[in-house]
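INTERNAL AUDIT FORM
Audit reference: QA-55
Scope: verify that the stored structure record matches its stored sequence.
Auditor: D.O.
Record contents follow.
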Amino acid sequence: MSNDYPESDDAELVQEDRLWQGNGWTARVIKNEDDDGWAVAMIKDGEPEPALVGPWTMGRDKKNPKPLDVNAFNTLVKTANEVIRRHEQQLHAQLHKNVTVGTDEGPVKVCLDITPDEDDPYATLTAFDSYGEELAKVRVAPTFKLTATSASAWIENGFRRP
């Protein structure tokens, strides 16, 4: 029977008491610098910093850490993925804002999308009618504060750059 899939890298993964790899993650049990206990750092493959560092359980001897195992590792992966997801949601919320304001022609949704470029950060202000048709689009400073008042002023000013 032929196998169309490449050989798995699982054989190269380390799965030891204090170091466990799999599912794109590495869990490393480390000495807690703040006290006598232990911590576990979850590092996503290819990332320089841990996505999550948390306390780790002491073993039965009350001196050494509890060994990592597949169940603990899977729980840690789930938790670390959730931390990353929440961080991404928070970042998205900071970079993409919108308000809807009432006008004589109906509601207008105004969106502010910030592009955090290291060399040239900027933002785009876009207005849409109630059917989702774009009414106007202008480039603004990334520090532009989108509020119902600033959106209304932009609309009343004929969508000229604020």
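Auditor finding: record pair retrieved intact. Residues 14 and 21 are 5 Å apart (CA to CA).
Action required: none
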